[in-house]
Every structure is written in C-alpha cells, then in structure tokens.
Amino acid sequence: MRTHRLGRSTTEVTELGFGGGPLGGLFEPLDDDTAARALAAAWEAGIRYFDTSPHYGIGHSERRIGELLRSKPRAEFTLSTKVGRLLVPQDPKGRLDESFAVPATHRRVWDFSRDGILRSVEDSLTRMGVDRIDVLYLHDAEEHFEAALRDGYPALAELRAQGMVGAVGAGMYHPGKLTRLVQETDADVIMLSGRYTLLDHTALDELLPACAERGVSVLAASVFNSGLLATHRPAEGARFDYAPADPQLLERVNRIADVCESHGVTVPQAAMAFPLCHPAVAGIVVGMRSAQEVRLNTAAFSAPVPVLLWSDLRAEGLLDERVPVDTVL
Question: Within a domain: residue 229?
Fold first, then answer.
C-alpha cells in the first residue's frame, strides 16, 4: 500500500488508514474479539496507519488498538491519537455512555491547556501500552477553538520539538477553523471529517487551497458521511453526518450511483478514491468494526477508478467545478 509523508515531518501514513471510532462502540456495542479480528484483518491487508482517540468509547478504542500494535514491530506502523478531552473515572450506575455503547465508567472533561494535554498524552500511552505516539491532534475543538489555538497547539508543538511525537495538527469537521489553524501555526497535518467527500465539497473554498499553499497534509475522514456512501445504493435508514439522510441526499446518491455503474465502479469505491484526487490529500481514514468490513473496504479501496468518472460526475452537476478531474489513481 502506498505511503505519504505528512507535511514537513518525517512521519508517513498509508493511503488507507484504520479509523478507531467504531472500536469504541459507535452506534452499537462491540466485543473485544470482534475488534481484535478487525484489527488483525487490517494489518493483514497492509494498513499501517491506525487512528484513535480517548473520546472513542471512553478509552475502549485506544486499549483495543494498543493490544494489536504492542505485538508489532514499532517501526512498521504509524499511530495517532487526540487530545482535548480528559477521562475522569465515575460510578457508571448501570448507565451507558452518552456517545458510545459502553458502560459510563468515565466522564469527559474538556481541557486544551498545556497541563491537560500532557496528562492526556500520558493517559493515552498507558491505555495503549506503547512507548510513543506518532501523530497528535487537537480533537473536536470547534467550540473551544480559541483555547485550543492559544494554549493547546503550543503544547503539541513543544512535544514535537522534544521528539515525543512526529507530527501534529487538528482533527475537526469545521473547514473555516481548520483553515485558521493552518494559516496561524506550523501544523503538519489536519484530519478533516466529512467535508471533502462525494457529497460535501466545502473544503475547496479555503481549507484545501491553504493546505496546498503551506504544505500541510490533509487526511480525509468520514469519507462515507456516516454511512450514506458506504453501500452501492443508499440503504434503508442510511445516515448522513450521524443523522437520517433526507430525500434530496438520497436522490443525489442514487444519481451518483448511476454514473458510477456506467463506469463499472461502485459508490464506496468512488467515495474512497475521490479525496485522494486532490494533491493536498495524503490519505483517507475509514472507521471499521469487523474483519468483514475491513476486507470489503480494502477490496473497494484497491479497485481501479477510471479518470473519466470524475469528469462525468462533474458534467452531471454532481461534483463542484473546482474538483480535480484529471487525476489517475
């Protein structure tokens, strides 16, 4: 699998990365054995970039990813996690976490201070049982952006300067705030959630040009927009950005599917290939919860996508006029 370097760092990622959100019990419970088989299948398929966060299942995702990676040669994989939420133990009292289907053994406390970030990193290293983190992101800082920019980012840069991490940046869904981060810091990479996909091109306005100008790598996450683009045709109850998709979006995806089928391509294949056509995008990160999902996604990722697909989608008004259409993958 091809790899790309992140920004001006020496850290590299495979073009397809494993997103750890589902390993935290996103949408529905997940047992340890199923998670372990998913991670083993990802490694077997050649994926060497694994992304997680304390937020994902209040530590479950980090623990599960650490259990796989501790058995692998450290030089052979790239590991990222995130900061901004500290996990504080609490009595679950029989309750499930409000965001993931796991017992509510901890509560999240927002903290983008230097001390909070250093504590978060130490806690993550302990949960994962690894000696270092390769990429560190400010996470979901939209509502805490000034603190994250003023206090949080300098702490990340300090860790990078000390050699504690290889590359730093932020993972968010808000292109405007990510653009500010790119313009006002020396970040290596940003992880953009759901805003450069077949259905959402808002990153073309400012963010992708800023990243290209400043040499900041982009990792595109949520390329299926929470599942709407994950099947050949929209499935019943399909979600877009974590909410039920509206009829207009369903119609648009069916039109995209029509064009894809005329080229012998499926919607998931196109959805994974699309972000990589932009020169600023170094890779995509796909959340996977089972070995079967891993096998399906890696097969779709490796399928050839003809360059004429993009120009035909644009001709049908289904892609922004600014989308590159002459990239051969």
Answer: yes
Q: CA–CA distance from 16 to each of 12, 58, 108, 166, 275 (Å)?
A: 12, 25, 29, 19, 11
Q: Per-residue pLDDT tens for 185-201?
A: 999 999 999 999 999 99
Task: Report the C-alpha gap between 67 and 128 in whole angstroms.
Answer: 7
Q: Where do we find the tokens 């991490």?
A: 165
Q: Taking the model in full, what pTM does it have?
A: 0.96
**Residue 81 phi, psi dihedral angles, 5° rounding:** -145, -170
Active site residues: 56
Contacts of residue 299, defined as CB under 8 A and 6 or more positions apart, other chains included, come to none
pLDDT tens-digit map of 149-162: 999 999 999 999 99
**By C-alpha distance, which of 327, 235, 238, 315 is closest to 275?**
327
Identify whether 286 is part of a domain: yes
Does residue 105 form part of some domain? yes
Q: Output the pLDDT for position 329.
A: 47
Of the candidates 68, 16, 25, the one whose C-alpha atom is nearest the C-alpha of residue 221 is 16
Structural domain of 42: 3-244+265-302
